[in-house]
Amino acid sequence: MDADRIGRTLTRIAHEILERNRGIEDLALIGIRTRGVPLARRLAEMLRDIQGHDVPTGTLDITLYRDDLMRTAVGGQPVVRKTEIPFSIGDKRILLVDDVLYTGRTIRAALDALIEFGRPRAIQLVVLVDRGHRELPIKADYVGKNVPTSLTQSVQVHLTEIDGRDEVEILES
Amino acid sequence: MKKDLLGIGDLTTDEIYRVLDTAEAMREIGQRPIKKVPTLRGKTVVNLFYEASTRTRTSFEIAEKRLSADTLSIAVATSSAQKGETLADTALNLEAMAPDMIVLRHASSGAGHLLSRICKSRIINAGDGMHEHPTQALLDAFTIREHKKRIDGLKVAIVGDLLHSRVLRSNVLLLTRLGAEVWVCGPATLVPTGIEQCGVRVSTSIAEAVADADVIMMLRIQQERMQGAFFPSLREYFHTFGMTAARVALARPDVIIMHPGPMNRGVEIASDVADGRSSVILEQVANGVAVRMAVLYLLGGGREGD
Hints:
Chain A is an alpha/beta fold. Chain A has a single domain (3-67, 82-172), classed as 3-Layer(aba) Sandwich (Rossmann fold), CATH 3.40.50.2020. Chain A has helices spanning 3-21, 36-51, 105-115, 160-163; strands spanning 27-32, 57-60, 93-101, 122-130, 142-146, 153-158, 167-172. In chain A, strand 3, helix 3 and strand 4 form a beta-alpha-beta unit. Chain B is of the alpha/beta class. Chain B folds into two domains: 8-132 and 286-300, Aspartate/ornithine carbamoyltransferase (Rossmann fold, 3-Layer(aba) Sandwich); 134-281, Aspartate/ornithine carbamoyltransferase (Rossmann fold). Chain B is built from eleven helices and nine strands. In chain B, helix 1 (13-29) crosses helix 11, helix 2 (55-66) packs across helix 11 and helix 5 packs across helix 6 (166-177). Chain B is globular. The interface between A and B is medium-sized, with 23 and 30 residues.
């Protein structure tokens, strides 16, 4: 996917979000670090452009909830960064945003983390790319693009805010 | 990270910054409605305290609980040490019950190193005699960085009972490594021999030490460790080395006043300074939990070469 395609995909998702939720009342966006964060911000801007008001937007770091944390035999612990959710998630419809949906383990961790901040009315999942190979019973509500991949491939999402360009590429490893 | 955290020397400069950055993230957990993450679930941490401690022990316990570790605290007054058991034997017996980490506070310098040699559990030094107290220095650095946005190039004046202070040793090692200009000041009888070889400036004049300082760190007069008369009286000590508002005024206007606690008001620090606008003493305590969570997390995972 190139920059143009990513832009149009996000615009489509923004409209789907409005359609499914009948407006942006009670909606909030939470991006999963790292690349879910700029995606959530872009969706927030698009929703504001369409509806004329702001959607609260937060950032979630799921490192401390990973199921493989204390199992690594070699090397140090993964870097923990800040979670910033500057609003109450209670009774909100949360749109959880990530770049790639793969095994589903990140989303499992994110759901566990979110629940500790309160009891949202609903949590919906937004991903730019669904590459398949789920290991947990998790499904996205909004998918930018379904990309069939093999286990030997890796999906790299580059976003301008972090990587200086917008592109999704599939690499053979 | 190495297996144990016994002193600042166990950390590379990168690891120091890693601890400080991780602590930033950990602090947010303390502001949540549910102040707990599952990270250390199933890990057992023993807090083995051979010396009186309120702050450090509570701080470690809260940090451990916020990370979901199973914790137990052993205060020596109620332990078998009273019946004559040695530290090594107590440690080996605890070790037989397979804890993952032992947090040790002991009156003898090097107690942590002894446990490090005989235990498979990771050892965190929570203060060993007059030697080191690494997590205190890390939380001090965290507090300084939060206020000053940097540590490099700051003038830090550490004033008080230098001789008996493990907080001093850990802070000197840490702050000089991070590029601070560290001044130490106290009565000549309480200046450790050779301290200037650690890259600090030594002064027995408090006016010189605190002049234009960005940070003033006061150290407690540790009467319990003093065998002999190091100064004529507490009143005279306060008169010569106590931190008063007039002395604070010699430092930079945005100076922060620190104290690792417990404070002796009217001995090393005047009450109006301890409670004053520049004091960050209670922030240090709050930051201690986040910094200890960071240390527990970073030590808690797999180990290189396991």
